[in-house]
Amino acid sequence: MSIGTAALILILSVFNGFESLLSGMLNTFNPDIKVTLVQGKYISKDSINLDLIKNIDGIDRISFTLEETSFFDYKGSQEVGIIKGVDENFVYVTGLDSSIISGSANFDDEVDYALLGSGMNTKLSVNPSDAFAVITAYMPSKDDQGPLGKDFNSLQFYPSGTFSVGSDIDVQYVLINFDLVNQILKLDDHFSAIEIKVKPGTNENTVIKSLSKVLGNQYTIKNRYQQDEGFLKIMNIEKWISFLIACLTLLIIAFNLVGSLWMIVLEKKKDISILMSMGLTKSSIRWIFLTLGFLISVIGLVFGFILSLVLYWMQKNYGLISIPDGFLIDAYPIELRFIDFIVVSITVMIIGYLASLLPSIRAGKVSAFVRQE
User: Contact 96/140 with Cβ under 8 angstroms?
Assistant: First the structure.
């Protein structure tokens, strides 16, 4: 029971660690709040009251972004990805500067520079030492074309650096000045999202409610969690499936408890008969064995918690189980949460109760008649 308890705690802790690690990396790319259209893709600046949004209490910075699928070409290497036009506030709204692994984020419209995701940088085989090689982005033209017209608009730019947030974003995104993307798409001051940074200590839900009143129901407003809701849901599903598999293992381990209590019932049949002949009821006999099962489960639970805390400390400080080279971290991340101890305690006690139930029922069926030998 102790080993099973420790296993449950450690499984949940490892998934907690991965969830916090990946969420933390994604948070450097995602804003506190993101506003997009419910239907459609592009929002006109004339369709919103920007002054009312800026006056909402708790909003620190606002950034306008514009995304479009694009075809990239660099010295013969070609790849499909997403070009994202960002303004000068984007770095402050998202904290992207902490994810830059080489070069710098330069979104000045005087020089056509772009910041590439590490995966996109690798797929295009970008050479940082070649200052004269350009990346060309091709996007479908939205104008009506004649027989000699081009179906695509193109934009050339120079790579200024790379960033990494440890997800699919790295292999898809290229960040460039907002005005350049707006011009090539010929959208005339349109954008695809409003990205908002909330002041420290401000309740996000309060800001979201205020935004809903200002913008109406034509817009979708999401916090950080909701922006990656699908990804985090998958993580939680994997976490609890692993937990259920470990519970099944613990249930198999609990058969040892069933066997031990059953043997005690068989060995103590004479003592049970004497107690019943002295007036002890069947329900009291059953309760004795249920209490014994609970006691064994509690002892196993306590020692399991101690074992899990020791292994947690060793993993946290010494990296007991390491990860092969080439990953962002050297050892499996791990994080304890109080709610996990409550869930595991309830689970172990339920399994302990089920394991004690059959022996206690059998003990209650022992006859009060004592055979003389």
Answer: no
Closest CA to 173 of 99, 68, 71, 84: 84
Asked if 121 and 159 count as a contact pair (C-beta separation under 8 A), the reply is yes
Task: Give all strands (DSSP E) within the chain, no chain letters.
Answer: 33-37, 43-44, 59-74, 77-86, 100-103, 113-117, 135-140, 152-163, 173-177, 190-191, 193-198, 219-223
Query: Which residues touch 326 (CB under 8 Å, ≥6 apart)?
Result: none
d(CA 353, CA 347): 10
CB of 160 within 8 A of CB of 113? Answer: yes
* pLDDT tens, residue by residue, 80-109: 999 999 988 888 888 888 888 888 887 766
Element (H, E) at 116: strand 113-117
- Could you report the per-residue pLDDT of 170-213, keeping only the tens digit for each? 889 999 998 888 888 887 788 899 999 998 888 888 999 999 98
169 CB-side CA count, 13 A: 23
Longest dimension (CA), the chain: 112
pTM over 0.70: no
Contact 165, 26 (CB under 8 A): yes
Three-state secondary structure call for residue 29: coil
> In the 8-state DSSP scheme, what is residue 47?
G
Whole-number Å distance between alpha carbons of 31 and 86:
13
Closest CA to 160 of 79, 91, 77, 80: 91
User: Do 118 and 170 meet the contact criterion of CB atoms below 8 Å apart?
Assistant: yes
